[in-house]
Amino acid sequence: MSSSPQILIEQGVAHLTLNRPTQRNALDIPTLNAISAYLEDFAENPAVRVLLIDSVGKTFCAGADLAEWAAAEQRGELESYGWTEAAHQMMDQLYRLPKPTIAAIHGGAVGAGMDLALCCDMRIADKTAYFKAGYTSMAYCPDAGASWHLPRLIGEEQAKRLLFLDEPYNAEQAFAAGLIGEICADGELATLAQERAARFAAGPTLAFAETKTLIRDSYSRTLAEQLLAEQAAGLRCGRSQDAMEALNAINEKRPPQFIGR
């Protein structure tokens, strides 16, 4: 059974809520496809200036929907039923979204649920949060981006520890390792996440997009190449309406009012 994610777009914030609490917000193919469709719209929609992802229930996301997986195996279609392709498309879209993305994590982020959070620019968690790879315990390997994100976030050895041992990292461990950037008390997550999202929504959207792209592409460039890319990106930012507004605000000794263009 699938229930589409809930969407609210308000004051520049696209609030996407995973909405399968009975299934611990597991990602089945209809859910993955729904998120992909939303992301395609968000990328081009000027009303969206930041994406906030959270969940209903006690679990952020339990990963792949094992009931859907088992049904495919019974049909003899485990290798071809399409989950991996749908998940990979969605994860890549989320990672490349040219706007800030925030995951607000309550409860478990397991397997592909952890990978979903890792694709976001920032992760905020409350004290209930924990991360678990979930792959090797099932004699499986990462299949939704963990092998790419984890070494970059926490280093190769720590990534191997998390993946090989498959032990959960609680919120404090995740913060110490670098998996999340902020921890708050239970009950405060929604407020904190909304505050962060509102701040980004009021910011210079184009500059955020150019910064995300520069960071993402830096891994495949030399410093000289990166400096050239920064110069080109800086010219694009400098021609924006927000850049002009920033200069005017400085001259007029007032806070800037960015419009995202």
Automatic annotation (TrEMBL):
<keyword id="KW-0456">Lyase</keyword>
<dbReference type="GO" id="GO:0016829">
    <property type="term" value="F:lyase activity"/>
</dbReference>
<dbReference type="InterPro" id="IPR014748">
    <property type="entry name" value="Enoyl-CoA_hydra_C"/>
</dbReference>
<dbReference type="InterPro" id="IPR001753">
    <property type="entry name" value="Enoyl-CoA_hydra/iso"/>
</dbReference>
<comment type="similarity">
    <text>Belongs to the enoyl-CoA hydratase/isomerase family.</text>
</comment>
<dbReference type="InterPro" id="IPR018376">
    <property type="entry name" value="Enoyl-CoA_hyd/isom_CS"/>
</dbReference>
<dbReference type="GO" id="GO:0006635">
    <property type="term" value="P:fatty acid beta-oxidation"/>
</dbReference>
<dbReference type="InterPro" id="IPR029045">
    <property type="entry name" value="ClpP/crotonase-like_dom_sf"/>
</dbReference>
<protein>
    <submittedName>
        <fullName>Enoyl-CoA hydratase</fullName>
    </submittedName>
</protein>
<dbReference type="Pfam" id="PF00378">
    <property type="entry name" value="ECH_1"/>
</dbReference>
